[in-house]
């Protein structure tokens, strides 16, 4: 088994060519796929588990004989959160590496920077980022695996509606995901009889959200708060929230769906709710849950290989890779157009995010039932009651 490391344009470029001795026929071709991820930098909590997941499963697939006897080669670049670098690496994947498909894009910003490159080159691209704008409107060559920010708003407001909550404050990050989710929440709130009565924001470098949260706390009639965002911002919001003694429910987004959020927020995370994939509560699912075998299988393999707790972000990469592999098998070809067509036909695929049923009008294929409402209890994720 070989792993080649090469530095390109100041970022990590990893070529994973896991060879199983004698497992592949001498005449087998290599199917070259690409990824651009935020494996280092402020969004490494997204990109690092995504990169490790892709490397782990490409090795496993090749050790088992590849895809219909053809070895997979993963060409991977680390863009950090730099959209310009992401676009440069996307161009390199197309023009120099000649990949047939791409699974990547940890953040909305880097994803949106790469989309024009893959659309122009007619290379199928499965994004791992959250914003609905990635697939709405539908773009012929672009798909995604995580639930959208719009769906997160809907799941949160659905839960609020069940709890009799209608007057809500919002504090949002100003990055691509936070801004997009804020806009989506404002757009759908009325559908759930929710009124946004306070609306604050914070920047990526802000280290104290007390002023914004004080404004929200002092808003008359406040019944709950939603925090669209990812990275360290939501953990800071959560700690400041407790420090100010705000005594109404706090909801976060699936942008913080990893154990690192609980570790960063500490005791203040207790009681926080958020919509997320079943992966975070894999061991707590009932045995008859049809998703349990998939999420437990991924969790055990990832944690066993890395020694790190599983996150939904690595799960997004697992889903993207497995859908791509199945599409290549159905296509019986490494032709990008044939692969694209088969990705779009994905039906009944059980992934870590839920059951995926794509179509020409839906390049995500998930509905709200794929989201679980979770709550932090005793420092761990639980299924909210």
Characterize the structure shown.
Belongs to the leucine-binding protein family. This is ABC transporter substrate-binding protein. It comes from Rhodobium orientis. One of its GO terms (biological process) is amino acid transport. With 385 residues, the protein is an alpha/beta fold. Helices cover 37% and strands 21% of the residues. The protein contains 11 helices and 16 strands. The strands form 4 sheets. A 7-stranded mixed sheet has the order 1-2-4-3-5-6-7, with helices on both faces. A 4-stranded parallel sheet has the order 9-8-10-11, with helices on both faces. Strands 12-15-16 form a 3-stranded antiparallel sheet. The N and C termini lie far apart (47 Å). The model is unreliable at 1-27 (pLDDT under 50).
Brief rundown of the structure:
This protein has 385 residues and is an alpha/beta fold.
The CATH H-level superfamily of the largest domain is Response regulator
Helix and strand string, N-terminal first? Answer: EEEHEHEHEEHEHEHEHEHEHHHEEEE
Helix content: 25-40%
Annotation, overall tally of beta strands: 16
Cα radius of gyration in angstroms: 21 Å
CATH topology title of the largest domain: Rossmann fold
Question: Uncertain regions: pLDDT < 50 for 5+ in a row?
Answer: 1-27
CATH architecture classification name of the largest domain: 3-Layer(aba) Sandwich
Ends distance: 47 Å
CATH top-level class of the largest domain: Alpha Beta
Read across the widest sheet, the strand sequence of neighbours is 1-2-4-3-5-6-7
On the 0-100 scale, what is the average pLDDT? 92
Q: Per DSSP, what share of the residues sits in E-state strands of 2 or more residues? A: 15-25%
